[in-house]
Amino acid sequence: MARTAGTVILYYGVNETVAALGAINIVLYSWIYTSLKRKTILNTWVGALVGAIPPLMGWASSSSLTDPGAWCLAALLFAWQFPHFNALSHNIAQQYKNAGYVMTAAEYPKLNARVALRYSILMFPICFGLCYFNVTDWGFMLDSSIANFWMTLMAFRFWKQQHINHKPNYRPSEVQITAANIQAKKLFWVSVWQLPAVLILAMLHKRGQWEKIFGYFLHHDKESAKKVLIETI
Predict the structure, then answer these.
(1) Measured distance CA(99)–CA(96) in Å, rounded
(2) What does the DSSP assignment read for 180-233?
(3) What is the pLDDT of residue 229?
(4) How far apart are CA 103 and CA 232, in angstroms?
(5) Integer angstrom CA distances of residue 211 from 15, 61, 208
(6) Superkingdom of the source (predicted)?
(7) Which domain holds residue 86?
(8) Confidence of residue 232 (pLDDT cuts 50, 70, 90)
(9) How confident is the model at residue 205 (pLDDT cuts 50, 70, 90)?
(10) What's the whole-model pTM score?
(11) Where a domain ends, among 44, 66, 88?
């Protein structure tokens, strides 16, 4: 009932595109993602789609989804969820397994770390895409790279430790297992700070924003100068 009401409100209160995206997300999360958690590691990719749709809904509320910038924002949220969740799930992998959930961290630890690193690296071209498609200015490319490098470095260290621990016929020591757990925690907390940092930087670097602000003040300064000159004459 609540799901239907929410979709109807979005349809009449915003537009049909936002309502359709909301309905798709309900189906993805409630039915597909939830059922897949006990069947396959692909549930994480479906869950990442659920997290990527809200930016599209926000964009569709005022602009067309034919704009590539909308998909860059969705890709940003999609990619970020892998280093974030894969690091989180590493230290509770056994709990997931005991509960009957099929998670990459429990089934394929090396893949879990590799995917976290892969999507951390993907954050770089996604942020460059926001510049290219005129969502942000080109200064965002530099600023966002600092935050992305921070997370990628932590993801690389996590991957490296997992790669060592899970070599064929190799039994990691307690120290090495603890080291991997620590790297996972570091990556998780860096991801918590990285996403807000990138989004705030994107707002600060919004295309044309500073030109409008400075243009406003310059315009008013000219008007003030004209007024003073007229009064003097």
Answers:
(1) 5
(2) HHHHHHHHHHHHHHHHHHHHHHHHHTBTTHHHHHHHHHHHHHHHHHHHHHHHH-
(3) 42
(4) 77
(5) 31, 25, 5
(6) Eukaryota
(7) 79-232
(8) very low
(9) very high
(10) 0.87
(11) 66
